[in-house]
Amino acid sequence: MKLPAPPTEKSFPSPLHHPRVATVIGRWLAVAVLVCFLTGLFSHFQQHTPAWLHIPSRPASLYRVTQGLHVFSGTIAVPLLLAKLWTVYPKLFAKPELKGLLEKASILVLVSAMALELFIGYLNTLQWYPWPFPFKETHYALAWIIIGALLVHIAVKLPLIRTHWRRTAEVVAESLPPAITGMTRRGLFRTVAGAASLVGISTIGQSVPAFGPIAVLAPRKPNVGPQGLPVNRTAEAAGVPGIPADWRFTISGPQQLSYTIDQLRALPQSRSDLPIACVEGWSQGARWEGIRIRDLLHLCGAPASSRVRVVSMEKGGFYATTELPPEFAADPLTLLALRLNGGELALDHGFPARIIAPNRPGVLQTKWVHRLEVIS
Ligand SMILES: Nc1nc2c(c(=O)[nH]1)N[C@H]1C(S)=C(S)[C@@H](COP(=O)(O)O)O[C@H]1N2
Ligand SMILES: [Mo]
Fold this sequence. Notes:
- Keywords: Membrane, Transmembrane, Transmembrane helix.
- This is Molybdopterin-binding protein.
- Pfam families: Oxidored_molyb.
- By secondary structure, the chain is of the alpha+beta class.
- It has two domains: about 10-215, no CATH class; about 235-375, Oxidoreductase, molybdopterin-binding domain (Sulfite Oxidase, Chain A, domain 2).
- Helices cover about 40% and strands about 15% of the residues.
- The strands form two sheets. A five-stranded mixed beta sheet has the order 2-1-10-5-6. Strands 3, 4, 7, 8 and 9 form a five-stranded antiparallel beta sheet that branches.
- The protein is elongated and about 90 Å long.
- The termini are far apart.
- The protein binds the ligand Nc1nc2c(c(=O)[nH]1)N[C@H]1C(S)=C(S)[C@@H](COP(=O)(O)O)O[C@H]1N2 and molybdenum atom.
- Ligand MTE binds near residues 312, 317, 320, 350 and 362.
- Ligand MTE binds next to loops.
């Protein structure tokens, strides 16, 4: 008995595997990747600000928008990547040529880096970190590998992309639906766009309240939690049991000041309407009341635009101490908040005092604050 010949690239004549299809879906994927990359860079620099960079504290909701876009574009990139891989998979059966070996290697790097990046990013939105390597550093390094490999890929394919950028008469002529699936190219585009939109619409509710009710795929509902706000890390998880009877808040600058809770409450209070925008993808606006950081700086004799170290009662952990750059310390919206949505802060939201600042990642909105240090 004669075995059938192994498939070659020619065994996949369907017009759905045509370079025109790869070009169209590739364009969508490229937009998603670019948005994801740029918003990711912004998030990275917020958390690791190089000395030459001054991130402004306004617009107040900027980070909420960029991080919402980051998780949104990353999420819809998953169906787009799958569709792109499906259109081009017959290439796997092409005769191996030495000439294209380097290009093949770069595609292998691109595809595996993207698959890993989207996978760990998605698990991160679920607050699940089941790997031994540090998430943030790995996610960041992979992003640069992807962008590098993507530029090589686009450069190599440029002639092909150019030819198929527009729908030519020749392409239309050979685009009869294949007998097996009966799906037209337009049908495929609609299916892929529909799948990406569906995934997008059912997750975007974690940062856009209007879509909250249909956010079936969103890991977090932005209005579910004590005081109408989710809790990312509970006091119990952070090892903060509450406060001792002799609790004091201190600020050290040119002068050292120390306050009991009641004394903090007696200081002039200001109100800020600001969101918590978690790097993990959810965000929610809230009303905060407390003392402006710039007022506290003034009280201890420091200039309003000082760099301030924020110290939490939480022991250890990545976010037990954070820094407020001068732009953020000076902003009148930045508070040592004592109240949330009309009530005293819940312990899980940082009782008795927490930082809330405009245009900042949630991870830097430090809870259970008991000390501020003026650094410069
Ligand atoms: N001390 C301390 N502050 C913290 C955290 C933490 O783990 N420890 N988590 C941060 C993160 S990741 C987020 S998103 C916000 C969430 O604030 P919430 O729990 O009040 O909604 O708190 C931030 N403040
Ligand atoms: Mo967060």
